[in-house]
Amino acid sequence: MTGRPRTARTGYRCAECGHQVAQWVGRCPSCQAWGTLEEQVTPATRAKRVAAGAPSTPARPIAEVELDAARARRTGVDELDRVLGGGLVPGSVVLLAGEPGVGKSTLLLDVAAKAAARGTVLYVTGEESAGQVRLRAERTGAVHDRLYLAAESDLGAIVGHLELLRPDLLIVDSIQTMSTAEADGNVGGVTQVRAVTVALTALAKERALPVILVGHVTKDGSIAGPRVLEHLVDVVLSFEGDRSSTLRMVRGVKNRFGAADEVGCFELRDEGIVGLADPSGLFLARFGTTHDEAVPGTAVTVVMDGRRPLLAEVQALVAGENIPSPRRAVSGLDSARVAMLLAVLERRVGIKLYDAEVYTATVGGMRVVEPAADLALALAVVSAKRDVALPPDLVALGEIGLAGEVRRVNGIGRRLAEAARLGFTRALVPLGSDVKPMGMRVQEVADLAHVVRGLRAG
């Protein structure tokens, strides 16, 4: 019995995120972008039975599969290797996404120059001319005889370069500027980006060639293009940084070869980008000078960025009395959490703050949002209010509840070990932490009021 012949179906796909809907609407239901739905016609196909074919390679017991081809090879940039899980795996595809001007091309030029010392590297640029890339390479010292530049935007031309050079590493900057004649749609659109990524991924697997793709991000910081782009690649890295700060962070979002929550720290300088194996000095105003210069209104804590413990200094300033509408200014912290801590200090500890202006901030442009910094921030506010400096060798860890209790946080051992390594000898931690690094006096506290009573009076 045969059914009626199927006809082609008309649908709409979002050019920003790839979401499909049956009928046109003005705003994409997925990414909320306006006017991005494009019509597409899907030809009708009958379900066919798949015939058995000859396997390309026979199946083997997992214990007999060779591991040499899947081992990571170091890039020469230690902080990037940390995030990648040891280095680049042959045949892997890495997507590095970040805002314009954050330093993606500068970092990859450094990677390319170091990789060129061990083999041939092909750097394909679709956004700049080869001369512009050469100028940046001259400034950062990334010029090497085996580093080849190609200003191309066509996938066929890239394949031609691969056939000619047989490189050991391919860098494409950026994937949104590449196109192929085998797919419809505009350059940078969903169809083109998907087709180019699929082709480059197939080439990488076929030739055991590591490929690094540069990706754009949207206004909200997510990776531009279809969501399937992140599923096609092996590793997704997010390159973050504030234009007002020299600090840059490479954060793992997805990693098939290692941990997906690692963070690498870099500093952007005039001569290029430099990895920071010990970035805590950027976040401590007193680091590198002397720990004897204690200032009221400052406290030190240890935050976890992925798996990495980082020391951070939080500062507070309490100014004025009997102000009808006092200000509350926050920089680098969660404003809602700061407001909650101020209310806890008023109600549970008896610190009068309602008629004074309170300013809170972090040092070095660091963003601190985890609750483990609550105790340090509360102590900084009390220190500023009483004009009494905290001990300069003290770190404080703990989440503050609405009842004023100090709650436990994860990774206490790693946090205190990092603080001890940097010379801090005293710590306030939640009750029941049961961690005492060598050379550090650890005091467990149960509630905020008890800690504040222990502070020395003026």
UniProtKB/TrEMBL annotation:
Keywords: ATP-binding, DNA damage, DNA repair, DNA-binding, Hydrolase, Metal-binding, Nucleotide-binding, Stress response, Zinc, Zinc-finger. ATP binds at residues 98-105. Residues 69-217 form the RecA family profile domain. Residues 357-458 are annotated as: Lon-protease-like. InterPro entries: AAA+_ATPase, DNA_repair_RadA, P-loop_NTPase, RecA_ATP-bd, Ribosomal_Su5_D2-typ_SF, Ribsml_uS5_D2-typ_fold_subgr, Rubredoxin_2. Pfam families: AAA_25 (PF13481), ChlI (PF13541), Zn_ribbon_LapB (PF18073). SMART domains: AAA. NCBIfam families: sms. Plays a role in repairing double-strand DNA breaks, probably involving stabilizing or processing branched DNA or blocked replication forks. DNA-dependent ATPase involved in processing of recombination intermediates, plays a role in repairing DNA breaks. Stimulates the branch migration of RecA-mediated strand transfer reactions, allowing the 3' invading strand to extend heteroduplex DNA faster. Binds ssDNA in the presence of ADP but not other nucleotides, has ATPase activity that is stimulated by ssDNA and various branched DNA structures, but inhibited by SSB. Does not have RecA's homology-searching function. The middle region has homology to RecA with ATPase motifs including the RadA KNRFG motif, while the C-terminus is homologous to Lon protease. Belongs to the RecA family. RadA subfamily. This is DNA repair protein RadA. It comes from Pseudonocardia hispaniensis.
